[in-house]
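Ticket #4471: structure export looks truncated?
Reporter: QA, pipeline team
Priority: medium

Steps to reproduce: submit the single chain below to the structure queue and open the exported record.
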Amino acid sequence: MKTRIYQLLICLLVLGGCKTSNDVSGFYSRDIECMGSELDGSVTLKTWGRGKNKADALEQAKKEAVNAVLFTGIRNGKPDCDTRALLNAPNIRQNKSDYFNRFFADGGDYKKFVSDKDETSGQKEKVESRDGEVMYGFIIRVMRSELQKQMIRDGILIINN
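Actual output as written to the record:
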């Protein structure tokens, strides 16, 4: 009788210890949302960044925002934003990889085209993951028209009239 109880307890402990965690929020990829567009040609986006701390996450969020404006476009949020990607040539990121690696490097030129001045302290969202990184949501303004002018000046974007 005692051996049956011990066997049952061992089975319960083994099965209970094998339960997987239901916490997937730290690994969920969040989409960039358009919060609005301004008359100066800029767009205000809600974007997410991951990093070891809040400052690192902010820099990643800025890179994500510029990346979306340049390459992927904005698919979510308010419909008054210009949702098209500035650069829609196939494989442009790979073909001009030297340029874009420098552009998106830490402290790179991407910083000239983003601002987090629209950010208010109550709007940040924080998600922690098990790997020690944190994910924050930020409100980022991307100067879309200035970014387009820079791409034209650098010969990345060719406008055909």
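Status: closed, not a bug. The export was complete when the record was re-opened. Leaving a note from the reviewer for reference: Confidence is low (pLDDT under 50) at residues 21-27.
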